Amino acid sequence: MMLRTTKLRDAVTLALFTTATLAASTGTALAQSEPQATTLDRVEVTGSRIRSVDAETSQPVQVIDRATIEKQGLTSVAEVLQRISSNGAALNRTFNNGGDGSSEVSLRNLGSARTLVLVDGRRWVSTLGGSVDLNTIPAAIIERIEVLKDGASSIYGSDAIAGVVNIITRENYQGAELRTHYGQFSQGDGERKSVELTIGSNGERGNVVFSLSRVEEEAVMAGDRAFSRDPVRGLGASQYSGYSSNGKIWNAGPLDDGDDGWSEYLIVPPNATGIGPAGQQRYGLDQTVPWSAASYAYNYAKDNYLLTPQTRTSAYTKARYDLTDTIAVRAEALYNERRSQQQLAGFPLTGGAGFGDPDAAMSPDSYFNPYNPAYGGDGRAVEWSHRLTEQARVYDQNVKTFHTYVGLEGTFDFADRFFSWDVGYNFNKSDQTDRQIGDANMLNVAAGVGPSELRDGRVVCVTGPGGDIIDGCVPFNPLSPAGGVSQEMLDYILFTAQDVYQNRTESFTANMSGDMFTMPGGTAGFAVGIESRRESGFDSPDAFVAAGLTSGNGRKPTAGSYDLDEIYAEVLLPLLSDVTGAQLLELSLASRYSDYSNFGDTTNSKAGFKWKPIDDLLIRGNWSEGFRAPPISTLFRGLADSYTQFGDICSADYEGRTGTIAANCLADGVPADFIQRTNTGLGYFGQTIFPFSIGGNPNAGPETSISKTAGFVYSPSFIESLNITVDWWNIKIENALSTPSAAYILDQCYAQGDQAWCDLFSRRAADNQIDFMLLAPQNLSVTEVEGWDVNVSYTMPETNFGNFGFALDTSYVSKWDSQFTPESEVSSAVGNYYESDPNWRLRANASLDWSYGDFSASWMTRYMSGLNEACAFPGRGLCTDEDRRTAEGPAPRNRLGATTYHDVQVRYQLPWNGTVKLGANNVFKKDPPFATQAFANSFDYQYDIPDSRYMYMEYVQRF
User: Fold this and answer.
1) What region holds the TonB-dependent receptor plug domain (predicted)?
2) Does residue 375 have a pLDDT over 90?
């Protein structure tokens, strides 16, 4: 990625690239009536509220200007930020199962909720989980993006642990601009279209900018790429779902020999004609079954989206009007609507006691039950499954985001000192409506598989054999062959859920900055401010979902709010300047006091310095405290179902069972011969058939952190336009919020004997299976990350062949350690891959720019280092090192190779003030590395989709 280079002769870029005249991020200094009174060269840089003619602070800031964004052929701000080297794993459009259409940024791979996102220096609306969906911010309004790669809670408050992303919107724009984009992948799918119109006008006393944009991004199906058309590439049907699209009887075995029936099952064969007294096919009950389960296992992966579709429509306006020569009113308004969708294979519908839902077992008196006594059967209730391929599961989101800011700002001189101030009201709200199509109403399912008979040539629901017809009920045959469930049955058992969400932020702010007194190095500066903010939100699920009456996971409503008041102060002390060994020496100090209505107060401070021993070299460092307040979902989340993968340590076949565990289990009433049962059959460590509950914790407190940075920027005077930046960084987070796993809860109960943890779960009296467990977040964990950022930019002197520029942006992670509790063993993630969590040791972006007359071009590369993962399927020939052993024994491993993507764009400036651009991303169709632990697609979501070159054309017309 190419970033902006500095133009000042002796300035040292605070980040990789910056410009000589950065616009103020929270209100530009207003022009005075006389030229000598203007403050146009005073700027505010992300990470400091003090406006200064010097754009550098002690903290590293990366600046991505609009020109750099436009060279990448991307249609969202999220895609731009997810490419920077300091970003880790974050939600994006490739998340289908588990995604909701939102896209985020996660600096240092510490989670998107620990990256503060600002727009023009002010907080943006967050989700219930505390992160910001970048798709609510249209790319059309962006002037530049400043990324502070350091903690900044002393300046901005909560969430600024890993860093701050400050999106600066366009202002003082004069003219009109129409921009269009069209592109698609080399296979002819994934079409993207966008159109943007921006109009701006400057008057004698102000400016107004208006922008409209529309972005349409179509889907790519997983089944349309060889890499992703199977759940695990290379394993074929062996990894398909056991929930076949053909009806399946799970308790087909005898019930009088001690067998529970699950060891023998039957699958409806192709072209089966049904069941009844007229001698139709009986699903092989009276013959040897010639087919196997694997033959009719279902490949659910091909039905999924590989890249989810999305449409975004936005309108934005920003205006400033000078009331006087020194006071102005500023107003902003934005409306953004996102419509997005995910698609999964049809629901794997089940019924019967073995699936935790005895009411949905097929009645012995169902017309479709092959064991119906009327047909000479033994009258058993059938435990069944049928994947509803007749209707895919579709999840639609409609998210409407509203933003309003109104404020006054101004400047004044007092005692030969310059001061600036602003007061304002900021309001952000997102209203989201979700539709979920393809889940079943389990009340209707239970009725449909209840007693039914053939009467007058039609199968009808009845109260019992020979009983009354039940009006409105449609008999349901889950033992249908693939595609055999009729539309009438589907209309009866399926329903469309509608959920409603809202996130809302409302704040009042007041800030002042200015000059204080003269010091040996110059004039000391200060900034002070106050903020009063209210955060609120709710999640109101469909009534059927809240009641737990659907085939999907149930959840209760979430609703809550909290208030806070904050005050901060910052000072900049120029200690020395223009002396031998100290061309510049400055000290910066800041502190912020925050008082929250839910957990109390916290104070966070910082100290930083910058020192120029010579004109060409800047040395800088920073130490800061940070915190993250628990978000709405952490505090107030309603109970939600979670089908958890776990091993019951009371199970007699649990390998780690000790005498203490056995004794405590026995004391809890669990017999010594108890065996855990999951929906994988008998055997420990599977997915529970009884949903556990994820919930909130109103007693959760804030996470705390210490951030440290140190580095230098070298801009040699003998090589003009060369800038080299090296920064070391370290972040340690304590009291990190994490949700204890089922294994941890059971260990604390039975191995450690802590009754408080035992109270979080219960067992079913009939067979001692765990049928409830509460999984709620707590302030338990510790995380420490460390690394280096190295950045280089160089613009060559003009040549006969044109102008050339080079940029390199790298981030190297030397430590990413975590502990579930402070007493736990340290786990290192650097260079390792876990599901949806790549921990690259090195990410790098490089670019080469060329311009010659009206022609220009850019070549950009994106590099991600290799990763190791534990082999999820040993002995299957999939992993690179299946024979690997450690001191503990066999440890097969898979290597995800380093990946480099190449992007190119060429541009031509037309005579009528237009620009045409042609480009391709992932020019060489580089496939992502194969990962055995990746979910569903055999590769991680942070990589480009496989076998896909994205080609596009853009046209820009300026008026």
Assistant:
1) 55-164
2) no
pLDDT over 90 at 290, yes or no: no
Are the C-beta atoms of residues 583 and 614 closer than 8 Å to each other?
yes
Mean predicted lDDT score pLDDT of the chain:
89
Residue 715 in contact with residue 6, Cβ under 8 Å? Answer: yes
Distance set, CA 419 to CA 28, 120, 587 (Å): 13, 20, 20
User: What are the tokens at 505?
Assistant: 């932020």
Q: Is 660 helix (H, G, I), strand (E, B) or coil?
A: helix
DSSP letter, residue 929: P
Q: State the residue for tokens 């009291």.
A: 735
Of 533, 120, 136, nearest in space to 332 by CA: 120
For residue 390, the SS3 value is coil
**Token digits for 200?**
């701006």
Residue the block writes with tokens 């200007």: 65
Distance CA 751, CA 190 (A): 52
**Helix H segments across 704-754?**
742-746
What's the DSSP call for residue 737?
Answer: E
Q: What angle do CA 657, 661, 663 make, to 5 degrees?
A: 125
Would you state the structure tokens that stand for residue 229, as one six-digit string?
């058309």
For 535-576, how does the pLDDT look when each residue is reduced to its tens digit (9 = 90+)?
A: 999 999 999 999 999 998 889 999 999 999 999 999 999 999
**DSSP state letters, 666-690:** HHTT--TT---EETTEESSSEE-SS
Q: How far is CA 412 from CA 397, 629, 663, in A?
A: 48, 36, 77
Q: How many residues does the chain have?
A: 959
What distance, in Å, lies between the first and last C-alpha atoms of the chain?
29
The confidence score (pLDDT) of residue 552 equals 87
Identify the weakest region by mean pLDDT among 237-246, 304-313, 325-334. Answer: 237-246
pLDDT tens digits along 861-907: 999 999 999 999 999 999 999 999 999 899 999 999 999 999 999 99
Question: What is the Cα–Cα distance from 931 to 232, expressed in whole angstroms?
Answer: 9
CA-nearest of 564, 266, 469, 502 to 386 is 266
Q: Would you call 178 exposed, middle or buried from its count of C-beta atoms within 10 A (0-12, 13-18, 19+)?
A: middle
The token pair that represents 806 in the structure block: 């080079």
Q: How far apart are CA 653 and CA 647, in angstroms?
A: 10
Radius of gyration of the chain (CA): 31
Q: How far apart are the C-alpha atoms of 718 and 723, rounded to whole Å?
A: 12
User: What ranges do the domains of the chain cover?
Assistant: 226-307+343-396+437-499, 645-687+740-775
Longest Cα–Cα distance of the chain, Å, equals 106
Distance separating alpha carbons of residues 388 and 351, to the nearest angstrom: 13
Least confident among 131-135, 290-294, 744-748, 853-857: 290-294
* % of the chain surpassing 70 pLDDT: 90
- Asked whether residue 420 carries a pLDDT value surpassing 60, the answer given is yes
Classify residue 896 by burial, with Cβ atoms within 10 Å: 0-12, 13-18, 19+.
Answer: buried
Q: Where are the alpha helices (DSSP H) in 189-332?
A: none
Residues 6+ apart with CB under 8 A from 659: none
Distance CA 682, CA 692 (A): 19
Contact of 17 with 723, CB cutoff 8 Å: yes
Retrieve residue 136's tokens: 């609510």
Question: CB of 846 within 8 A of CB of 807?
Answer: yes
Residue 752 dihedral angles phi and psi, to the nearest 5° = -95, -15
Centre a 10 Å sphere on the Cβ of residue 799 and count the other Cβ atoms it contains.
Answer: 10
Distances (CA, A) of 36 to 31, 39, 41, 447, 858: 10, 9, 12, 83, 41
pLDDT: which is higher, 206 or 34:
206
Sequence-ordered strand ranges (E) for 260-303: 266-267
| Region 670-681 average pLDDT | 78
| Residue 562 and residue 537 in contact, taking contact as beta carbons nearer than 8 Å | no
Find the range with the poorest average confidence among 202-216, 236-250, 260-274.
260-274
Residue 661 has pLDDT above 90, yes or no: yes
